[in-house]
Write a structure and sequence with these properties.
The protein has 31 residues and is mostly helical. It is 77% helix and 0% strand. It has one domain.
Length: 31
């Protein structure tokens, strides 16, 4: 997926930040 490629480009960003963003997205989706 392009998202994985984007993550590789943003390798400088901590992985936990990515997971946090995913969790926030899931919370919004569940609401």
């Amino acid at each position: 997926m392009d998202k994985w490629i984007y993550d590789l480009d943003k390798v400088n960003v901590p992985i936990w930040v990515k997971y946090k963003d995913e969790i926030l997205f899931l919370i919004v989706a569940l609401r």
